[in-house]
Design goal:
This protein is of the alpha+beta class and 180 residues long. It contains 4 helices and 9 strands; from the N terminus they run βαββαββαβαβββ.
């Protein structure tokens, strides 16, 4: 079962981000209902392992991180792979990320060693043509200072992800409350 742990987002924020991402005519847009902040990508795991992780996460105690959105950016530099809204890292968010990774490792899940750079994916790209590069640069110049009022994430979720040609289909398997 392909799964991840993520922070859900307020609907008014995801609606605004979806509208913003629709400013581009190329790439694959992430639907508003799929937008989240990934805390740990678990990849494909047996259901038994996810059940063990659920038990670990159910006992996890953590305070709700404050989420601050600051700007748009791309991963991939000169060959952009995705457009995202940047999330300002903070102590509570980083601590939650580390606790979740520790819980995953404790049940035998191998996680990638990428640096944690919290973000909300808006659009994915395969290869950009020169005109598309310019359009993307224009959107970032126009909307790059995008921000959103700070908010607290009240919970985090374990989500099952099924890939399709359109967009991934997400099913929340469990939610875990965070202390205010």
């Amino acid at each position: 079962m392909r799964a991840f742990i993520g922070l859900p987002l307020p609907h008014d924020l995801t609606d605004r981000l979806e509208t913003l991402a629709m400013g581009l005519r190329f790439g694959r847009a992430v639907p508003a209902e799929n937008m989240h902040i990934t805390l740990a990508f678990l990849d494909d795991q047996p259901e038994e392992i996810l059940a063990e992780l659920h038990e670990e996460l159910s006992g996890l105690s953590s305070r709700a991180p404050e989420i601050e959105i600051k700007g748009l950016d791309v991963f991939g530099g000169g060959k952009p792979r995705l457009l995202f809204a940047s999330v300002e890292p903070n102590e509570a968010l980083t601590a939650l990320h580390k606790k979740i990774r520790q819980a995953a490792r404790s049940v035998g899940i191998e996680l990638s060693h990428e640096r944690f750079r919290p973000h909300i994916t808006l659009r994915r790209f395969n290869r950009l043509h020169p005109g598309e590069h310019q359009e993307l640069e224009h959107l970032i110049a126009l909307e790059g200072a995008f921000s959103w009022p700070k908010f607290q994430a009240p919970s985090f979720d374990m989500v099952h992800s099924v890939l399709s040609h359109e967009a991934a289909q997400y099913e929340t398997l469990a939610s875990y409350p965070l202390a205010p």
